[in-house]
């Protein structure tokens, strides 16, 4: 197995430490899927990748940060074996390269947070594409404002052109803020809605090398979709209550 492929899969849900405890679902046809939710329950999603499966197994990782630290010392090419106990339940991963032989003990699935199914609307109200330039610009704005906790989305039409206006930072009159524009597709649009800038920024950061699509619903749901190589990543962020 190529370590970089597994590290890419992990980064898509770990979100730089926002998500720690998950269960990987591995299938016989070498697909690996993970569903996840942040501790604050305001961001959830799933990641799927091909040709990275570990047999028919549910692999529960309690601390992704700790697992990543162990994985860091391993060479680019490695083997991973799933060690099973009673009733064929996985309890350990054995990871080897030419220098190291590591054992990582798995968690009980009971200790992993449940990820509820997201009730998506039949149709979203706003859709727009994002690319590497958009991701760079949002990241610059986020850093310039010293990591604001929110950003706001609003729909506008100017000279017949529809666009989404993204305000990074608080919209109060005397608050520092930065506005970005992105062409968008909508009929009526949505009311102004605020979302977590931290969640949004980390999602963009782990997908900074690919283009993606964002959809927004009036019910207060933002959906992001990315595809990179054989990995697809989908994220949902719920709007802030105040």
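^ structure tokens above, recovered residues below v
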């Amino acid at each position: 197995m190529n370590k970089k492929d597994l590290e890419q899969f992990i980064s898509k849900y770990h979100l730089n430490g926002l998500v720690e405890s998950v269960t990987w679902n591995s299938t016989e046809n070498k697909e690996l899927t993970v569903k996840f939710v942040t501790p604050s329950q305001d961001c959830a999603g799933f990641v799927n990748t091909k040709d990275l499966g570990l047999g028919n197994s549910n692999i529960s990782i309690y601390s992704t940060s700790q697992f990543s630290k162990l994985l860091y010392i391993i060479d680019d090419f490695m083997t991973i074996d799933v060690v099973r106990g009673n009733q064929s339940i996985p309890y350990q991963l054995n990871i080897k390269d030419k220098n190291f032989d590591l054992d990582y003990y798995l968690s009980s699935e009971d200790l992993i947070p449940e990820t509820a199914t997201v009730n998506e609307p039949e149709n979203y109200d706003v859709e727009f594409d994002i690319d590497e330039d958009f991701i760079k610009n949002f990241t610059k704005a986020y850093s310039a404002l010293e990591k604001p906790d929110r950003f706001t989305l609003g729909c506008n039409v100017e000279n017949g052109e529809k666009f989404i206006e993204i305000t990074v930072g608080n919209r109060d009159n005397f608050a520092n803020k930065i506005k970005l524009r992105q062409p968008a597709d909508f009929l009526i649009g949505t009311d102004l809605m605020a979302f977590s800038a931290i969640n949004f920024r980390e999602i963009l950061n782990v997908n900074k090398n690919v283009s993606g699509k964002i959809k927004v619903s009036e019910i207060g749901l933002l959906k992001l979709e990315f595809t990179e190589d054989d990995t697809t990543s989908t994220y949902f962020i719920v709007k802030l209550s105040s």
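The longest helix spans residues 132-144.
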